[in-house]
Amino acid sequence: MEQTYEVVIVGGGFAGVAAAKELGHKGVAVLLIDQNNYHQFQPLLYQVSTAQIGITDVTRPLRGIFRRNKRVRVITAIATSVDATARTVTTADGNTYRGRILVLATGAVPNFFNTPGAEEKTFPLYSANDATRLGTRLVELLDETDSRPNNGGVNVVVVGGGPTGVETAGALAEMFKYVVPEYFSHSSASKCSVHLVDMVPTVLNTFSEKSQKYARSRLAKMGAKLKLGLGVTEVRDDGVTLADGTVLPSQLVIWAGGLKAGPIIDESGLPQGRGGRIDTNPDLTAPGFDGIYVLGDAANTTDRTGAKLPQLGSVAQQSGKWAARNIYADLTGGAREPFKYVDKGYMAMVGRGAAVAELGKKHTQLQGPFAFIAWLAVHVVLLSGNRQRIRALFSWFENYLSHTRSHVAPAQAKAG
Ligand SMILES: Cc1cc2nc3c(=O)[nH]c(=O)nc-3n(C[C@H](O)[C@H](O)[C@H](O)COP(=O)(O)OP(=O)(O)OC[C@H]3O[C@@H](n4cnc5c(N)ncnc54)[C@H](O)[C@@H]3O)c2cc1C
Fold this sequence. Notes:
The strands form seven sheets. Strands 1, 2, 5, 6, 7, 8, 20 and 21 form an eight-stranded mixed β-sheet that branches. The protein starts with a strand and ends in a 15-residue tail after the last helix. Helix 1 links the parallel strand 1 and strand 2 (30-34). 32% of the residues lie in helices and 27% in strands. By secondary structure, the protein is α/β, with parallel strands linked by helices. It is globular, with a radius of gyration of 22 Å. It has two domains: 2-35 and 77-110 and 259-332, FAD/NAD(P)-binding domain (3-Layer(bba) Sandwich); 118-257 and 345-401, FAD/NAD(P)-binding domain.
């Protein structure tokens, strides 16, 4: 069965939701397709895995977001193929949807760079499912080590020293240092360790040297061990092998080593650039395909100055909103405008009261408690939904004042 809409959007992440909201407000008939019936807030997934906040704090029903906008119809379905020339998308249930305009905002999937064992044996952290699976495995391992006190603690290796890896390693180091001794009876539980590995000789490679230095010293202070300047060549059942041949023993390897566009982009026939993403035109359309927009992590987006933009929530959100205006122009005979990105900077949390932030166009640097407060403020604003904001704020307050954890990770924990 084929259905036609003015605009079909695949992907209800930052970019897809922003585009659908703006188009819905303008009265355009939109079909929004996502494989999940919820929108997920990726920046806080590591906090779900480490039981700082709950899974419902980082997820929000897509139909709830659009319940007051009847011009936006949401369906839950996995898009399996795209025909860029016909501007159609086909879903796993056999339906085909055609848009006068088709928007691809399907985000990214982990890039394992063909590292042997990585895909099967590691735990990535890119979706709500990943976060609960990792959290559950962590608790399983802690339980096991608690019941066999002479066997030592849990050794975790985090691969990738970008913001995701740093935030995850920091949260785990803090958990092992303060939370595990309170919750697990045997001293073996406090023998747990976390290693952060990256092939480049620093962490937070895209941040300033000062921020990098601060993050490295805070991580070390919290007990995380840094193995920098050495790539992972293999992931084994008992740990990871590094480029110099050493083996880091580990029962749990977390993959934060990179991203690439998902399979639907691979098979779309659109011209792909770095990371398998689509190098879009400045107006956010795909080169050679006038009615196709590619947004967020699925695209290599440039702004009107030609600057390449990073894969960030703010880029995805702003490009979604901007694309909606260009689409409205397409539908009403107006002219498209090249995307203008407002750079608000970036930040990463290293631990309790410790963060790095490079704010605004000039990337004004903050470290420590001030950056931590800026991080809290920005994430409260970015979170989708007032309930989610209030619950997350309450949890952060509780975590800050004590080392208690009141959340669980209810998922099946199997690697691969
Ligand atoms: C762990 C982590 C931490 C991060 N921290 C930050 C941060 O602190 N600050 C920041 O700015 N950015 C951060 N980012 C980056 C930011 O989350 C992404 O840039 C942003 O989510 C991209 O938005 P998007 O809409 O392109 O994709 P996504 O948000 O990934 O949304 C893609 C959507 O498409 C759906 N989808 C995918 N394939 C299909 C299919 N075949 N069929 C149907 N639906 C499909 C998915 O279910 C998903 O809902 C982080 C990312 C991660 C993974």
